[in-house]
Amino acid sequence: MTTRILPAVGDLDAARSVTTLLSQLPDAEPAPPAGDSTQLIDTLARLAAEAIDELPEVVLVHERIGPVPALELIREVSMRFPSVGVVLITADASPNLFADAMDSGARGLVTLPLSYEELANRVQAAAQWSAGVRRHLTSGNDVFTGPGGTVVTVTGAKGGVGATVTAIQLALAAQASGNTVALVDMDLQTGDIASFLDVQFRRSLVDLALITDISPRVLSDAVFSHSTGLALLLAPGEGERGEEVSDRSARQIVSALRTRYEIVVIDCGGQMNGANAAAIEMADVALLVTTPDVIAVRGAKRIVRMWERLQIRKAEETITLVNRFTRNTEIQPPLIQKITGTRVASATVPANFKELQASIDSGRLHELDAKSTVKQALWGLAGELGIVKESATAKKSGSALAKRNSGVFKNDRGSIGRARRRRDGSGRGPGDSEGTR
């Protein structure tokens, strides 16, 4: 039996040493090394999307891998790809590190400098374990076998640009199309999702922050099941407790959520901290919300540059949404794209806060009229981001966009589709004047 091995080694010299030794193992098929944690996760996700059998049996994680620390990376790989045996390569063979590695989900530990016999034994043991798990996974239908749900983060260029409204409507659109959806409030000090959806719930993200192994039962106890079908994980009622959620806790929470839900939408607010920075780094889609004014666009540029400096996310991997858009504004989407270096979404949200005011004041944003131009734009954005399932009606007619262009919105599901601007480029209806908050 051939054992496929994917090493994750950041240092070039160490990568050459590992690859050379792996090539000498019998029946081993080593893949080119992944240079960092992001490349490793992306590679595994791509292979898992094809088929579980396409995943390598063994992943070797070097202790110097980055930017995600080795133990946190092992935990994420173990949770998202449970059929892969992970082995840690480290110079520290202390009992404490061994225990921490096992707690993170590693199947073994190889000490530096590498020896042929030790590496062969650990790889063989991990491969045998992987084969047994895969036999179990293929025999049952209720065990998670996929690469994990899609994580979408929504960040405001500054406070008050509409990030929370955007996150809620994206989650509602994804849920209405048939996905299982979790909506997370990671604006830890000033999160308002509970207020927007009229929720009173005593548990929050903080309840998961100090738990080292988040089981499905523990997760379900911390999540509030909303009447819309959304699973809500809320910010703490006492803002100062947000400091208890570290970047490591955030990674663990996001990893646990994406194994349970098809879509995870995270409201990161307009202020950066370690927790939401970790979420943005892990996200499949990072959405940055701005308004077409100088202050907000400068804020958007500042955030994008900060993400690049901290190696959280590249500008070209970020999507910018223009909220409160009017055709008469001096700052148009192409200019915002040029300033920020990001890709601007083709959907723009019209400036029409009057449509939202009653729903926001009553805490019933989920009951916003389907005819609302703001809601239609945001649900169209959900289609553009690929987080909605195409309905049978839309498939029959060719696309959800065709249905939207017909001007018929029989219900909320019918309004999901790819946003399209009007001929004047504004994407707004008559009488639009005020913006989303």
Protein architecture, described:
The chain has 437 residues and is of the alpha/beta class. Helices cover 41% and strands 16% of the residues. The chain has helices at residues 12-22, 37-50, 70-80, 95-104, 116-139, 163-176, 193-196, 206-209, 216-222, 247-258, 274-282, 294-309, 333-340, 354-361, 373-385, 392-397, 400-405; strands spanning 3-8, 28-30, 58-62, 85-90, 108-111, 150-156, 181-185, 224-225, 231-233, 263-269, 285-290, 318-325, 343-350. An 8-stranded mixed beta sheet has the order 8-9-7-10-6-11-12-13, sandwiched between helices. The chain is elongated, with a radius of gyration of 23 Å. The protein starts with a strand and ends in a 32-residue tail after the last helix.
Summarize the structure.
This protein has helices at about 10-20, 35-50, 70-80, 95-105, 115-140, 165-175, 195, 205-210, 215-220, 245-260, 275-280, 295-310, 335-340, 355-360, 375-385, 390-395, 400-405, and strands at about 5-10, 30, 60, 85-90, 110, 150-155, 180-185, 225, 230-235, 265-270, 285-290, 320-325, 345-350.
